[in-house]
Amino acid sequence: MKPYLLQGHERPITSIQYNYDGDLLFTASKDHIPSVWRSEDGDRLGTFTGHKGTVWDLDCDRFTRRLLTASADATVRLWKCESGECTKIFPHIGPVRGVAWAEGCQMFATISDPFMEHNAKIRVYEVPESEDPSSYDDEPKLEIDLSKIAGKRVNPTNIQWTSLNEALLIAFDNGKIRLYDPETGEVTDEIQAHDKKINRLRFNRDKTLFITSSADFTSKLFDPVDLKHLKTYKTDRPVNDAVISNTKEHILLGGGQEAMSVTTTSGKVGKFETRFFNMVYEDEFGCVKGHFGPINALDINPTGRSYASGAEDGYVRLHLFDKDYLELKDPVPEVDDEEEEGIAEDMEPER
Questions:
Q1: 177 and 160 in contact (C-beta within 8 Å)?
Q2: Tens digit of each residue's pLDDT (9 = 90 or more) over 160-174
Q3: What pLDDT score was predicted for residue 267?
Q4: Are 12 and 259 in contact, with CB atoms under 8 Å apart?
Q5: 175, 100, 180, 189: which is closest to 146 by C-alpha?
Q6: Distance (Å, rounded) from C-alpha 133 to C-alpha 88?
Q7: Where does residue 191 rank: exposed (0-12), middle (13-18), buried (19+ CB within 10 A)?
Q8: Which residues contact 59 (CB under 8 A, 6 or more apart)?
Q9: HSE (CB half, 13 Å, CA atoms) of 126?
Q10: Longest dimension (CA), the chain
Q11: Which residues pair with 189 in a beta bridge?
């Protein structure tokens, strides 16, 4: 497997995303400056300069025309992908933890952390591409206040839209997942998915499955329609991100030891590798090493020919899959041709 080491960030990586076509890779980090790279060879094409705090999340639209970035400076910025120009700033009350385009890319949703006396909030904004960005309203179309539970503040950690924009899927630091109606703001469903904080949610390409990553050392596969739990992938360390392959029935997991204790641990002990699991059988069949800190973000190319990982060490590693992996067949019990012929002869009726 051929890796490229992308050295463009000065601080830990927070988010990684391929665009829909898989030819570009967007990365965000704690150094305030998101970057875009060519996924074929790892060349950096440009940066998006303007934030004054950690960029926690980003999302590129379907046709790679507009980019959203969510930052700890309490803003979400809308950018032109081609030029890197910031066309609109959406102010928030607290640090913005996540952002996600709705299908159709005419509106988006954000989650922000609690700040002073203000609770965490979910917001939905309308941004029609046919209109001038300067005409977009600073106020959201919908705002959901996440009130305290038993006197304790609730912190959302990740946000996604379900298929056809039917609901907002939100993960929380108490291990719960909720579905919200994007029109009324009401909670339509809720489950206790994990025992500890959920770090990230990821859908597959057609949004028929989603996977969670948790600090309880597990990653779980769910059906987004009824939030039914399907599979569990167990590890021996916190899982910070997980992705579903579009071309194979494989799951990629990334994580490692807590960042605060990394300085006292060697890379070998900290287990900072990407782990490969069979989606159906839940067993691990491989791992890729290389990082010197816990992996914070993962994404796999929609074409299935590469994947990228970003870690606490500030590096992005772009891995191009070799021929052995691309031609790898899943372990399905198969009968040899000779045995098949023998079985066929045994089944022939006697004359």
A1: no
A2: 999 999 999 999 999
A3: 47
A4: yes
A5: 180
A6: 6
A7: middle
A8: 17, 67, 68, 99, 100, 101, 108
A9: 9
A10: 88
A11: 179
